[in-house]
Automatic annotation (TrEMBL):
Alphabetized InterPro entries for the sequence: Aminotransferase_I/II_large, AspAT/PAT-like, PyrdxlP-dep_Trfase, PyrdxlP-dep_Trfase_major
Protein name: Aminotransferase class I/classII large domain-containing protein
Domain Aminotransferase class I/classII large: 7-113
Family label: Belongs to the class-I pyridoxal-phosphate-dependent aminotransferase family.
UniProt cofactor(s): pyridoxal 5'-phosphate
Molecular-function GO terms, alphabetical: pyridoxal phosphate binding; transaminase activity
Length: 113
């Protein structure tokens, strides 16, 4: 990918969860705003821990932060069918937001590997 420089947002070392406040701080930082950040990729459930982010408290916050800064949010839902406690419901709700792109994997969703 030409002229793309990824910026890694580290997860909290105790909970192993990405933090929307960290993303807000990253995007509002003057140095990073000059880097012209256009896209955030969020993998959910998160590998390698398998943690699924909660829609109401976590995913909505990521969507809101990205929307505030005019940044696209790509949510990688590769393992959407392997989340059994109903936390994957965000897929449909986030789809209604203008700045969200959901991606999926047919082979993994249906166990074709």
């Amino acid at each position: 990918m030409s002229d793309i420089n990824p910026i890694i947002l580290p997860c909290d070392s105790q909970s192993m969860r990405p933090n929307p406040t960290q993303l807000y701080n990253l995007l509002s930082d003057q140095e990073n705003s000059q880097k012209n950040i256009k896209l955030v990729v969020l993998v959910n459930p998160c590998n390698p821990t398998g943690i699924a982010l909660d829609f109401d408290s976590e995913l909505t916050a990521f969507v809101d932060v990205c929307e505030k800064f005019g940044v696209w949010l790509v949510v990688d839902n590769t393992y959407e069918h392997f989340v059994y406690d109903n936390t994957a419901k965000h897929r449909w709700k986030c789809s209604e937001r203008k700045n969200v792109i959901n991606i999926f994997s047919f082979s993994k969703a249906y166990g074709l590997m």
